[in-house]
Amino acid sequence: MNCPLCGSSISAGAVLCGICGHTLTATAPPPRYAGFLRRAAAACIDLGVLLPAVLVMAAVFFTAPSPAERDVIDRLRAGMASRAEVEAVQVHMSMQFAGMLFFYFVLGVPYFILTEISGWQGTVGKRALGLKVTDKRGRRLRFGGAALRYACRPLSVLPACSGLFMAGFTARKQALHDLISGCFVVRA
Fold first, then answer.
1. In this predicted model, which residue has the larger pLDDT, 28 or 124?
2. Burial of 113 per CB tally in 10 Å (0-12, 13-18, 19+)
3. 125, 181 in Cβ contact below 8 A?
4. Nearest-CA neighbor of 103 among 52, 176, 160?
5. Angle value at C-alpha 88, between 82 and 93, nearest 5 degrees
6. Intra-chain end-to-end CA distance of the chain, in Å
7. Tens of pLDDT along 177-187?
8. What's the predicted TM-score (pTM) here?
9. Is the peptide bond before 110 cis (omega within 30 degrees of 0)?
10. DSSP string, 143-166
11. How many other CB atoms are found less than 10 A from the CB of residue 156?
């Protein structure tokens, strides 16, 4: 290694050049970006953290099927339901699924934003897998950056999770919501 000021040879770990006295700055190793599979595993852990609360909210806000609805479901299982009854069940189930996605997104606001701006710099899943979320300079996210990153997550999920799969193909392993918000997921 050479001094950037005078060019003299210096030993590794030195903080001053022995010839000119120039203060040497340590160069940080380049970040190791988290790959798609590690990020997907962290997301599964986070789903496990949030899912119980989502199910509790669903139990509170969704009603059990009425006797008439149970009768339609039984006829549907037996293959004897009319087309209109099948469509009604499909609409009802789709609305409940959309409601659960809504609950997940609403519960995710404090979970994702607060954990990413904390000293952990990531969710329980990211922490378990040794990952953290950073800004362009490698620093902890501020509230606005974490909120923007979370608000852009639906863009990564639609259509067909294509924005999430980008993390497997971009140079810095960024998903669409990372690119938009200027964030990176790195190994801690």
1. 124
2. buried
3. no
4. 52
5. 130
6. 27
7. 999 999 999 99
8. 0.78
9. no
10. HHHHHHHHHTHHHHHTTTTHHHHG
11. 21
